[in-house]
């Protein structure tokens, strides 16, 4: 079980990562739209891993649970891509 200090640091990191999205999209002279989208996706992946690892306690689970969750996340990405392809 993580301490309150760890949870507080994760919370601050999540706030800073959320601020990154604002920075990407509100400074178009620095970041292009494509760079903002890619940066937002990277920040979202980092935020998801922090939330799943610490707040949902997956980092303390056996590796088989972690691999199952990664497989499920990969399948969601595949289904999203397939849905996007079928809409076009």
Please give the domain count: 2
- What is the N-to-C succession of helices and strands? HHH
Described by strand count, sense and barrel closure, the largest sheet is: none
What level of helicity do the residues show? over 70%
- The global form is flat
Radius of gyration: 16 Å
Low-pLDDT sequence parts: none
Overall mean pLDDT score? 88
The total strand number stands at 0
Strand content: under 5%
**Tally of separate helices:** 3
Specify the structural class: mainly alpha
C-alpha end-to-end distance: 46 Å
Q: How does this structure look, described?
A:
The protein has 88 residues and is mostly helical. It folds into 2 domains: 56 residues; 27 residues. Helix 1 runs antiparallel to helix 2. The chain is flat. The protein starts with a helix and ends with a helix.
Short description:
The chain is an all-alpha fold. 81% of the residues lie in helices and 0% in strands.
Layout: helices, strands, pairs:
Blueprint: H1 4-26, H2 33-55, H3 63-87
Helix pairs in contact: 1-2
